[in-house]
Structures are given as C-alpha cells and as structure tokens.
Design brief:
Residues 1-10 have a biased composition (Polar residues). InterPro entries: DEAD/DEAH_box_helicase_dom (IPR011545), Helicase_ATP-bd (IPR014001), Helicase_C-like (IPR001650), P-loop_NTPase (IPR027417), RNA-helicase_DEAD-box_CS (IPR000629), RNA_helicase_DEAD_Q_motif (IPR014014). Keywords: ATP-binding, Helicase, Hydrolase, mRNA transport, Nuclear pore complex, Nucleotide-binding, Nucleus, Protein transport, RNA-binding, Translocation, Transport. Residues 17-26 have a biased composition (Basic and acidic residues). The strands form three sheets. An eight-stranded mixed beta sheet has the order 1-4-5-3-6-7-2-8, sandwiched between helices. A seven-stranded parallel beta sheet has the order 11-12-10-13-16-9-17, sandwiched between helices. The chain has a two-stranded antiparallel ribbon with strand order 14-15. Helices cover 38% and strands 17% of the residues. It is an alpha/beta fold. Helix 3 (102-112) packs parallel to helix 4 and helix 11 (305-319) packs across helix 16 (464-476). The structure holds adenosine-5'-triphosphate (ATP). Adenosine-5'-triphosphate is lined by residues 39-40, 47-48, 97, 99-101, 104, 123, 125-131, 263, 384, 386, 388, 421, 425-426. The site of adenosine-5'-triphosphate has 24 residues, from helix 4.
C-alpha cells in the first residue's frame, strides 16, 4: 500500500451545519478538532491577501498578476459576471477573493451551464481549483426543504483525510450565507468511534469510507447530482483508490455531473479520465505550463545520508521563517528524523498515514494554526494541502516511482510537482530544496529538470551564512516575485 492511501478502517464521519447566515462556525463540532482558523480547512479566511507582507503590497501584486494574461491567476471577468448567487458572492467576499483565477473563470461557465456537462479540469498547483468545483456545487444545491438539506446532493472524493477536511473547511466558509447548508465529512474513524449518518447536503470524503457508508446505508446516494474527484489523476491511477472510486461511482445515479480536477494528468490517466467522465468539457495545460513561476527550485549536494540530516538541521533557522514541509520517502524515516531533531531541541512534528485519524487531525491543525512550523511527512501530504504560510518545501528524498513495491530509480514527476506546489500558492513566493546524496538521486533530479524544462540551481553549502541570506532573500524579497515572474 502506498503512503497516501487510507490505512485505517472506514466508518467515521462528522457533519457540520451552516444554519444561519451569521454563524461562521460549525454547530456540531463534536468531531471537529479545532474551530476554523486560517487557510483551507478553516474559517473566515483572508483569501489571498493573507500574506506575510503588508496588505497593500500584496493587493497590488496580486492584482498585477491577475492582470497579466500569461499568468494562471489572470481573468477578465469578475465573480459577479459568472452569475453566482448573491449569498455565495458574499461568502467569496469574506474570503477576500476579489477576482477569479484563470481556471475559475474558464471552468465555472462550463460547470454551471445546463444541462450539466462533465468536466476534466487541469490547472497549476495553488491556482484555485477547489473554489471552481465548490462554487459549482453551491450553485446547484437545492436547500428549499429540510429533507433536501439532509440528503446528499453532491459528493467530493479526495485521496486523504487531510484534504477532505480542508475542502469541508472551504465549503463552510464559502457557503456560510446559504441557510440550511449541511456538510458531512466521510473519513476513516478512529478504531473506537462509531460513524454517524450522513444527513447533509454535501459529503466530502475518502473513497473507501464513502463506499463503506453507502453499503451500510449510512449515506443515501440516490439524490446525488454532482460527483467531484479532486486530485483525480492520483485517485484514478492508484490501485485501491482507483477501484474504490469506480465502485463508489457505480453506487450513485448515472445522471450525476462528473467533475475531475488536478494539476497533473499524465497521458495514460488522462485517457482513462475520459472514460470515467464521458463526453466531458476539458481544460488542459501545455506541458511547459505545469510549473509555477513563484516557486524557486534549488538542490543541495549531500555526500551521505547523514549529511542530509546535518543539512536539514543547519536549515532549521530558515525552516521556521515561515512554515515548512519536509518530504521523506517512508513513514519510518519521518518518525526517526522527528525524534532525532526533537531530542536535539528543535520543534518539529510529523504526520504519516501510520497513525490514527484524530492524531493526524491534531497535527495538521496545529500546523495550519502555526503552532507547529516544521512538518515532516511522506507523500500523504504531497497533494492539495493549502497552508499559505508554507514558504519552504524540502525534498529530503526525491519522490520516486514504485513498481510492485520496489523502488525504480525513476522520478515520480507528478509527485515532485505536487510536493513543491505546497508552497508558492496563489501568487506567493516559495522555495523548494531537493537533497541529493547519491548518483541515483542526482540522476533523478536531472530527469526532473529535463522533464519540466526547468532549472534547479545548486546551493553551495560551503558558507551557511550565505545560504541563509540567499534563501531568506528569495522568500522575503517582495521584488523577487515580479523579477522572477518576468524572467520566466
Ligand atoms: N479567486 C481567488 N482570489 C484569491 N485567493 C484565491 C482565489 N481562488 C483561490 N484562492 C486561494 O488560493 C489558494 C489555493 O487554492 P486551492 O487550494 O484551491 O488550489 P488548487 O488549485 O486546488 O491547488 P492544488 O493543485 O495544490 O490542490 C487557497 O488559499 C485559496 O483560498
């Protein structure tokens, strides 16, 4: 089983209800580990103005980016032009979403037209795909009676519990002025917890749990109108997850609108995606458009595994300038690095698929809130996670393809892109550093550069003060963004 598959038994759930327009918090928070705070899984978010720089600089910068036709954040239209309900527009305005991004501007008319058509949508990491599918769902919900409010009309499937919970957070905020909106989270429960019934209008969950809930009649699928697969290439490509998605789809009405979104659609999955979502409208990216300009990609030579660790410790001061995610290959090494760093007096946390759900929830929540600033993890968090303060991503191990459980020395290009995409979100600047400690890793890094036609610069570690200054400058220098965007 790969790291980003479900590892705990299916069955947990929680439903949050948006009852009154002025209630921004869920009324049933029994299973919600923290009140919404910031970023995706959370509340009255600052949208993209929640950057570290002063507000006015950010607003100018974002509007500059949104006015550049070559930028993925560009749009000519406003949210009002897209024909959204006034209550939804009000939700967007509390999130400080001023203009749609390119994918939102293009996808929403296709998604919202009637009769509903399927969509396969691709756009770079951090460009607002979540809002695109959530706005379509909110626009299609009929909340006119109590019964409609309590029967699922839309189902969103995501590969991990963290991403599912994050999407719930986005719907809560975006839909906060829709009276009667109830959102259910269908993620694996802790072993001693009992699942509650999915009496809600939107269900967000992981495929295995949702399938299980339908089978056990905890969730009624007969009223579903929209099915979304977020990180669709990953969902359809993976053994296990793919089968679960197919089975879940077989259990719901054939008439549903099927919506697939991801930043990546490798050719073989793309062909399959078209079968899963027949006759779909398509929004795709050219190969050379995949990388995000605001993410500065670097690498560090390390002569041994031990030197990787020492370099990470050296970087610690920088890791805590903003928040950072360190990606490692296995659960065991995540835990080991965490233990070692903590023993040496550093404050770090780890999150892997190997621990129970509630513990995972507590870790990701403290990372979102900024209580934990350095998170060591596996591919389980490579996709979708949106924490705007992440300014540094470290590939402690280069992501690698597996075949029959064996390493192949072939880079996992998609995962590389998704991992580095945890930073540099919606116009922000970020830095991604890959550690290279042997010939295989060096070769994989070379292939990654070739594949994405990008330059990954070497960091000279002979002078750590200089390393620090250079990285800090990249992260903090507000001019860097404009320069970098222009030079690319
Ligand atoms: N129109 C907008 N204006 C301002 N901020 C926005 C807008 N749309 C989305 N955002 C913000 O941009 C960030 C990234 O959005 P989102 O998580 O949906 O990206 P994504 O395209 O799904 O990325 P990934 O491929 O990594 O999953 C979020 O913090 C979101 O709140």
């Amino acid at each position: 089983m790969s790291e980003n598959q479900e590892t705990t038994p299916a069955g947990g759930s929680l439903a949050d209800r948006v009852t009154k327009p002025d209630e921004s918090k869920p009324t049933d928070s029994s299973n919600v580990s923290a009140a919404p705070k910031e970023d995706g899984a959370s509340a009255p978010a600052q949208g993209s103005a929640d950057l570290e720089e002063p507000d006015y600089t950010v607003a100018v910068k974002l509007s500059d980016l949104q006015a550049d036709p070559n930028n993925p954040l560009f749009s000519v239209k406003s949210f009002e032009d897209l024909g959204l309900d006034a209550r939804i527009l009000k939700g967007l305005s509390t999130m400080n979403f001023r203009k749609p991004s390119k994918v939102q501007e293009r996808a929403l008319p296709l998604l919202m037209s009637n009769p509903p058509k399927n969509l396969v949508g691709q756009s770079q990491s951090g460009t607002g795909k979540t809002a695109a599918f959530v706005l379509n769902i909110l626009s299609r919900l009929d909340l006119s009676t109590e019964q409609l409010q309590m029967t699922p009309q839309a189902l969103i499937l995501a590969p991990t519990r963290e991403l599912a919970r994050q999407i719930v957070g986005v719907i809560q905020i975006m839909g906060q002025f829709l009276e009667g909106l109830v959102i259910g989270t269908a993620v694996p429960a802790d072993s001693n917890a009992r699942p509650s019934k999915m009496d809600c209008s939107v269900v967000v969950g992981t495929p295995g749990t949702v399938q299980d809930m339908i089978k056990k009649r905890i969730m009624n699928p007969t009223g579903l109108k929209v099915l979304v697969l977020d990180e669709a290439d990953n969902m359809l490509d993976q053994q296990g997850l793919g089968d679960q998605c197919i089975r879940a789809k077989a259990m719901i009405p054939r008439t549903v609108q099927i919506v697939l979104f991801s930043a990546t659609f490798p050719a073989h999955v793309y062909r399959y995606a078209n079968k899963f979502a027949p006759a779909a409208n398509e929004i795709t990216l050219q190969h050379e458009e995949l990388t995000v300009d605001g993410i500065k990609q670097l690498y560090m030579d390390c002569s041994t595994d031990e030197e990787k660790y020492q370099n990470l410790v050296q970087l610690y001061g920088l890791l805590t300038v903003g928040s950072s995610i360190i990606f490692v290959r296995t659960r065991a090494s995540a835990v080991e690095i965490e233990k070692r760093m903590v023993a040496e007096g550093h404050t770090v946390a780890s999150l892997t698929g190997g621990v129970e759900g509630s513990q995972r929830d507590a870790v990701i929540d403290s990372f979102r809130s900024g209580d934990a600033k350095v998170l060591i993890t596996t591919n389980v968090l490579a996709r979708g996670i949106d924490v705007s303060t992440v300014s540094l991503v470290v590939n402690y191990d280069i992501p690698e393809e597996y075949s029959s459980g064996q390493r192949t020395n072939t880079p996992d290009y998609q995962t590389y892109l998704h991992r580095i995409g945890r930073t540099g979100r919606f116009g922000r600047i970020g830095v991604a550093i890959s550690f290279v400690s042997n010939r295989n890793e060096w070769e994989m890094l070379r292939k990654i550069q070739e594949h994405f036609q990008c330059v990954i610069d070497r960091i000279d570690t002979s002078d750590w003060d200089e390393v620090e200054e250079m990285i800090k400058k990249t992260i903090k220098n507000t001019r860097a963004q404009a320069d970098f965007v222009q030079s690319n």
